[in-house]
Give the backbone structure.
Amino acid sequence: MSAAPLFEPGAGAGTVDAVLQARELEVLAHDCEGCRCCSLADGRRTAVVSRGNPRARLMLIGEAPGAQEDEQGLPFVGRSGQLLDRLLESVGLDSNTDAYVCNIVKCRPPENRRPTAQEMAACRPWLERQIQLMDPAVILLVGATAVEGLLGIKGGITKLRGQWSRGEGGSLEGRWLMPIFHPSYLLRHGSLEPESPRWLTGQDLQEVQRRLAQLTAPL
Ligand code: URA
């Protein structure tokens, strides 16, 4: 049997002072807006930090803002985000009240290309701070870039999706992690047939919902 984690992730939801947390997240968003740690800063309209509920137990981490996100300053508000919202809704989760949503990199890459390893590394301190402040019990890694950016694992999303792992070390210690397909991939593979990517994502999100219900159930 593995040793119990030294602290229970997610305990912050309700124990960390909400006013302090909100203030720290505001400072983070303000500082991030001035970040020039990589060249993505040159092309951004705005740094896209987060949306949703920082008191939730669920954090979603995607890849990078696209055109609409850059325009509105909010992650996952374009077509991919709308599909993500519908998928979450289908298991009774609201992306604005039941989750905190962010990305591996905060600035839009030109032509919506994938962020490079250097850009992901340059942006990592912002994500680390978000995880510390939000203290999620469950983190969904939305797409292969999120898996690479957070865990350093390249490729294999088809095998990794739907699999739970427990974070080890640093800001991830003890948190439940699950990769899922990116909604932009699901927009290109729209079949709802059993075993299709979209169907599998529905199964994965049901599993996430079950885990969250377990975590919030009284002992
Ligand atoms: N919009 C985001 O905010 N992130 C993604 O990964 C894709 C679209």
User: Anything to note?
Assistant: Residues 162 and 203 are 8 Å apart (CA to CA).
